[in-house]
Amino acid sequence: MTALGVTVALLVWGTALLCAFLWKQMYSSRKLPPGPFPLPIVGNVFQLELNDVPKSFARLAERFGPVFTLYLGSNRVVVLHGYQAVKEVLLQHKNEFSGRGEIHAYRVHKNQGITFNNGPTWKETRRSSLTILRDFGMGKEGNEARIQREIPFLLEALRKTEGQPFDPTFVVGCAPCNVIADILFRKHFDYEDRTCLRLQTLFNDNLYLLSTPWLLLHNNFPSFLNYLPGSHRKLMKNVSELKDYALARVKEHRQSLDPSCPRDFSDRLLMEMEKVPCTVPGKLSAWCSEMEKYKAEPGYNLDNIAATVADLFFAGSVTTSATLKYGLLVLMKHPEVEEKLHEEIDRVIGPHRIPSIKDKLEMPYMDAVVHEIQRFVNLLPSNLNHEATQDTVFRGYVIPKGTTLIPTLDSVLFDNKEFPDPDKFKPEHFLDEKGKFKHSDYFKAFSAGKRVCVGEGLARMELFLFFTAILQHFSLKSLVDPKDIDLTPS
């Protein structure tokens, strides 16, 4: 065959492949929500700003509406943008869209645990975990006492800075880390403990790495990028180290387990794994009876317990500590807000008494500021991916089973009708005309539905008590003019 013949054959072959791709694309997407036409192999990646994906989603929503389809590589993604669409997916279709979109860097968990589990055990693991956490007072008096016990340690660590500039990352991070560690392991770390500092480093690194453009690309092109060097390798190594730490603590608990006196979350999950008969009265007895229904499930093993503990340790530490740290930066930029908070704290609590949750009823401004910090921080703007568990008709479209869904939380938290001037920090977003706290159904910082954050009650309590305690004893001072403070997320 001549060179011309080879060229013609290649052109014909390429044209045939292109036509086949176009026909398949049009046929498979005829019942899907609208969206930009994808390119072969890469899909719509080039239509996203990888450094600001939420901004890209907002721009595409203006063009295609609140429900639109993207292709990230071969991965079909349906994006929900705006309060109504997000609410419908998370609450009205909570069963059909309750799956978890895959995050390849977390595959070391192998469909175990709570957060990234999309296997057959996630419902039972989540259900039993919530039951245990409720027994430990999640969001109730038990956790209030834990947080109040931690406050003096936090204040002492802050006093040691003697008013000098310092990085609050580890100091502020130790407080929520100790609260969740007490629930999971009955463990308390010193604020300079090397293990605690190492764990916080892993938490903070993972939170940052999960939001980077490279991890977005890796998650959608794992077969191409998995063997290349990159930050995905560091994330996978971090995840393995955290799971190994959790597994070591769980094994220690297994050796010293006393079924008549469970000490913490780990003990109770181990009792479920070992199918230990319940020998204590009260709530635990009722819990054991309830869990009998699920003992036939394959999820109760050391690996699953370790993954569950690691998930709760990560989520219960890093999200609260990041919100505290960023909230302090926001308050430094807005000294007028801090001044009002000092006035309210002095009036309601005074200088000596440890804050309590009942103080919230008399502190509407602090309550509003804490909510506004969470809204403004916008910690998970694109949420964690969901997945369709079955073929589902949604707004006249057919969402096939296995489709990834992204219910964007930032589109709800920054709704300009519910929150006028949403890009500005304004505690008034959560205050009525009389200065009383005003609830908003648009406040979905913890997501909603079947996959809502299991630690929402604990996180809300921690943020109110820790912010109040810090401002009860300290004033914030910036090294630069407040107007020069940059609040752009890294």
Write up what this structure looks like:
This protein has helices at 3-28, 53-64, 83-92, 122-135, 141-159, 169-185, 194-209, 213-220, 222-225, 231-255, 265-274, 283-291, 302-333, 335-348, 364-377, 410-413, 456-473, and strands at residues 67-72, 75-80, 99-100, 386-387, 392-394, 397-399, 404-407. The chain has 490 residues and is mainly alpha-helical. The protein has a 5-stranded mixed β-sheet, with helices on both faces. A two-stranded antiparallel ribbon has the order 5-6. Helix 10 packs across helix 13 (302-333). The longest helix is centred in the middle third of the chain and has 32 residues, at 302-333. The model is unreliable at 276-281 and 289-296 (pLDDT under 50).
Short synopsis of the structure:
This protein is mainly α.
Structural class: mainly alpha
User: Whole-Å distance between the termini?
Assistant: 57 Å
Helix content: 40-55%
Low-confidence segments: 276-281, 289-296
Q: List the strand order in the largest sheet.
A: 1-2-7-4-3
Major sheet characteristics: 5 strands, mixed
- Average pLDDT, all residues: 88
What is the H/E order? Answer: HHEEHEHHHHHHHHHHHHEEEEHH
State Rg: 25 Å
Number of helices: 17
Cofactor: heme
GO cellular component, one term: mitochondrial inner membrane
Pathway: Lipid metabolism; fatty acid metabolism
EC number: 1.14.13.n7, 1.14.14.1
For the structure shown, list the relevant keywords.
two-stranded antiparallel ribbon, 490 residues, mainly alpha, single chain, five-stranded mixed beta sheet, 17 helices
